[in-house]
Amino acid sequence: MEPRKPEESRTIVQKLGLDPILERLSGSLSLSDLNSLLLEVFRRKAAQTSAGELLKRYASNRFVLPADVNPLELKRLEIALLELAERHAYIPVQLSPVAPLGSCSAVASADQNKIISATRGTEVVADATNALALHICHSIRQGKLDNRVSPVRFSTTHRHVRAQRFAKPGLVPHFHLFCMVVSGRDTGSYAFEKQALLEQLQLYQAVFSKLFNESITVILNRRGGYPDSDGFVRRIFEWLREQAPEIGIVHNTEQAGNAYYQGLQFTIRVTIGGETLQIGDGGFVDWSQRMLGNKKERMMISAIGLERLIP
Q1: What is the pLDDT of residues 51-96, one digit of tens each?
Q2: Residue 6: pLDDT band by 50, 70, 90 thresholds?
Q3: In terms of domain of life, where is this protein from (predicted)?
């Protein structure tokens, strides 16, 4: 069953005259009360489902079918990545399969229709970097973490589900990613940005060198959100070439529209088995600034896909 497009949903609402009800459900009703109502609706729908209908739903729903991947090879790759990350001071975390409703759309630019929304105020995880960012910000606010003296770093491997249909062949509705998030404070001269970017790129270089005997190429892309973003990326590019000559760094001088990253976004390219892959990306985000209400907060995220690395 595919998620309905916004225009299809509007047509249904108008056809049944549900505008006033929809407004009350989404605006006036608390999330707790809405959850109780939806639970009863889904309970009744489930009670009407026969075993035969259940099997038909399984066959027709692309979100529930198993992935075409060797699970043993995937688990081995996950362990190798998490162990390497831990040796680079990135603490491994096992995330929940669900996140708070709005985890992607409230802080990033994702449309909620691309996320599988659920009951009890949750949604199925569509981006583990958002979930790691929430974990970090919650822990800072609770006094369990302190990023003022030195950055805090977390990593995870997680199965993601996204609702949109992908045009490119081979892209599937659920897939595994290795993700990292580092959180710190602005201390001037882009010190956090330089160190965070360098350490993550060196970790990715170590991953592909150790596990695949290959080197990575990193493309730096300019994004808005930083004063003098062009000069910022240029300085980062020159600094990285000095600090990490073993990594191929490319400065892409064209700026594309992007509301997700701030200042800089990087893309990781690697050739494995004769195939060149755009295997992952990352960059700086303002999520911790917005969640904690502090302009001094700094955060960088990144992720690589895992299925395409398994023969």
Answers
A1: 999 999 999 998 899 988 999 999 999 999 999 999 999 999 999 9
A2: low
A3: Bacteria
What three-state secondary structure class fits 254?
coil
Query: Could you tell me the end-to-end alpha-carbon distance of the chain, in angstroms, rounded to an integer?
Result: 30
Closest listed residue to residue 37, CA positions, set 50, 18, 24: 24
How many angstroms separate the CA atoms of 245 and 255, rounded? 25
**Cβ(196)–Cβ(182) below 8 Å:** yes
Spatial separation of the C-alpha atoms in residues 264 and 289, rounded to whole Å: 16
Residue 255 neighbours by CB under 8 Å, 6+ apart:
221, 222, 223, 224, 229, 230
How many other C-beta atoms are found inside a 10 Å radius of the C-beta of residue 53?
10
What is the predicted pLDDT for the residue at 17? 64
Structural domains of the chain ordered from first start: 6-60 (no CATH), 71-309 (3.30.930.10)
The model's pLDDT over 248-260, given as tens digits with 9 standing for 90+, comes to 999 998 766 677 8
Output the CA–CA distances (angstroms, integers) from residue 112 to 88, 117, 130, 301, in the order listed: 34, 8, 14, 21
Q: List, as one string, the DSSP characters of 141-165.
A: HTTS---SSS-EEEEEEEEEE--SP
Q: Are strands 152-161 and 91-92 parallel, antiparallel or unpaired?
A: parallel
Say if pTM beats, i.e. exceeds, 0.85.
Answer: yes
Among candidate residues 223, 281, 300, 282, the one with its CA nearest the CA of residue 254: 223
